[in-house]
Amino acid sequence: MSGDVEQIGTPRGPARVTWHRAAAPRGLLLLGHGAGGGIGAPDLVAATGAATVAGFDVGLVEQPYRVAGRRAPAPAGHLDQAWEAVVAAVRGDLPLLQGGRSSGARVACRTAAATGAVAVLCLAFPLHPPGRPERTRLPELDGAGVPVLVVQGRSDRFGIPDEGSGRSVVLIDGDHGLKKDPTGLAGAVRGWLAGLEL
Q1: 171 neighbors 28 (Cβ within 8 angstroms)
Q2: Most buried residue among 10, 146, 154, 189 by CB atoms closer than 10 A?
Q3: Helices 42-53 and 182-195, interaxial angle, to 10°?
Q4: How many CA atoms within 13 Å lie on the side-chain side of 86?
Q5: Could you give the angle at which helices 103-115 and 76-90 cross, rounded to 10 degrees?
Q6: CA–CA separation, 186 vs 169, rounded Å?
């Protein structure tokens, strides 16, 4: 996958957005990467392909710490601040959807209200650290306040959230990496996007 790349200044340093354009876009989907990974993750690639076919421009957002060459993630507040700055810089007239994989999904949920997103796509949402279900991150997921799709591997060690008010959960074969079933992931994303009223 290739696309136009745009660098965007944020209070936490420059972020980068790689664009994949739909022929006749009906919405904009911004997706963030996981804590230690990049925008080339297989689930992000599959979701991007599905969304562009479904009529969404997709921007793959690289957080400033990744642009600077670091693998260790920044604190949550820094990630959220950088994300909000990127959204403010690229947002146009199209309805905004946001999401990401793992840590990027957490950022998307935490910032949905502030950015005015109409829906959130979570790939491999890390419900809790492995083996530590008492340290749940469910309040972040519940706090999105808009329709949410969670696509989760059946054997994800970070837990599997239940469906809830405004939240759909689709389980596919695989673990936290969501590498095993890109076709199932793409189908889940396409079906969800098609059913959204924008």
Answers
A1: no
A2: 189
A3: 40
A4: 32
A5: 60
A6: 14
